[in-house]
Amino acid sequence: MNQTELTVIGDAELVEELSLLTTQTARMRARMADIMAELERRRRPRAAQRHARC
To answer: 3-state DSSP call for residue 54?
Structure first.
């Protein structure tokens, strides 16, 4: 959305759009945290196996 489009949209619509984007951002952050936790969980057994071989 460019500046011209923003000037013709009413306050309620802008607030609604902001709310939607905020919700999407929160979901994306939560998903990123889930993915990072899963990657960390997957790395732990590999690190433990490497230490066991030494």
So the answer is: coil
- How far apart (Å, rounded) are the C-alpha atoms in residues 10 and 4? 12
Q: What ranges in the chain are assigned the alpha helix state H?
A: 3-8, 11-53
For residue 51 the two structure tokens come to 């230490």
pLDDT in tens, 9-48: 899 999 999 999 999 999 999 999 999 999 999 999 776 7
- Quote the CA–CA distance of 23 and 17 in Å, as a whole number: 10
- Residue 9 neighbours by CB under 8 Å, 6+ apart: 17
pTM here is 0.64
